[in-house]
Amino acid sequence: MRPAAASTGWTRPPLIANPWLRWWLYLGLLVYVIAAVSTLDVNWQRVLSGLANGWRILEGFLAPDFTTRASDIWQGMEESLTMTLTSTVVGCLISIPIGLGAARNISPLPVYAVCRAIITVSRAFQEIIVAILFVAMFGFGPFAGFLTLSFATIGFMAKLLAEDIEDIKEVQAEAIRATGATWWQVINYGIQPQVMPRLIGLSFYRLDINFRESAVIGIVGAGGIGATLNTAMQRYDYDTAGAILIMIIVVVLAAEYLSSHLRKWVQ
Amino acid sequence: MLRVSSLTKRYKTGDEALRGVSFELPAGEVVALIGPSGSGKSTLIRCINRLVKPTSGSIDMDGTEITRLGGRGLRRARRHMGMIFQEYALVERLTVMENVLSGRLGYVPFWRSFLRRFPQSDVNNAFGLLERVGLSDQIDKRASALSGGQRQRVGIARALEQDPALLLVDEPTASLDPKTARQIMRLICEVCRERNLPAIISMHDVPLAKMFADRIIGLCEGEIVFDGAPANLDTAMLTEIYGEEDWTQIHPEDEAKAEPTPDDRHAREERMAGLT
Questions:
Q1: Which fold has domain A67-266?
Q2: pTM, whole model, 2 decimals?
């Protein structure tokens, strides 16, 4: 035992214990930042002309035009909301069995591997890429959008559900198992009550994400408000585009507010 | 009624938790299982209802060889063994009544348990048990809203709702204060006597074990080193079970060895193993 000196100072142990490695890392990082900034080639001429362009768009937003193309906007909005709701419901329902299969603590290895593979494929592709694929397969319109969002929802929900199941208090499930319950009864009594609040919360969160995504994938032809926005931009119809953006913002804010409230309420 | 012979358990990591444990349990006897952390108490209890699969040896319960069972046979055997856990192990988000009724899961088909439509006799029995453990006024509360002592009472009611032939109790009082611990031990022993129900109770607290048990089994490093009446458990015997302890010195190396206990780690490792 080393006796403590009366005046020993104390500093927090550094994250990287080896001082050589630590200082070389800091130095390397600094050099990299300087090198990276010096390679940026900014064409200030274009920035200036772009500013003027940007101002025109901003002007459009300051004077949004909801009326001229009202029916287009409403149709886009309706499509988007339909897409959002249906794809969230379908995606969440499909994600439940996949999530159960992808939880290592309750599923045998082959089932686990298959379910994890499905999740990985679903999460590997960004929505836009999936949307391009589905538009090519099923043609323009909200059906491709619905498929895209359902597909993305499956990966998102199943992964989070599986991780939640892997984090449960296993002793509660063990107690149910000790009563002689079957696999389904253990799921229903030992696991479902533990993951249900988060599952519901996540579904609302996904609803909110899906609406935002529906606006994006419309740009590649998957219907919805995104398609309407894209058309408006291509026509240089910035007043209408501004109106559409404002509507998107309002709906996203409302959805977020609602979903966060509902999540708090179920938890 | 229960005969365990030369039971061994070796975990995947190579630790030998049980080395040839043999004992017999007649009907209606309450046995306290004592021993230091990592001596295999928890493993022994979990081997009996096969939450942990023993490596070799046999467990005979009323003529059924438990170690060879699987699937439906194992579930049938488990429903006759009520288990009470250290941390209560109630499903916290379910109500008290649901937790008690979950003791019937081995008897009812899935649709009944899913819709919470248990047979009336089960529900009546659950009401009776909750009355017995003194929780009649808490029936529709969530388990998470109860105190430690109340939760353990629900745990007892759940185990009894199984209509068990044997009670397995793993450290029932370790998370409770001394007074509640006594009340819970008294309750467990009372219900065992009322029903002539044999019980194996693992515990840390030697005085409590001597106070309530008919018989004490001392485990040390996976072997039975004492098996007899509480009166015969003297200081020399305790030293053999728990080792020499010099109370005036702190031994940091001993504590480092003791934590985390192998039992805890393995219990977690195998907790869900039977599901996969």
A1: MetI-like fold (1.10.3720)
A2: 0.80
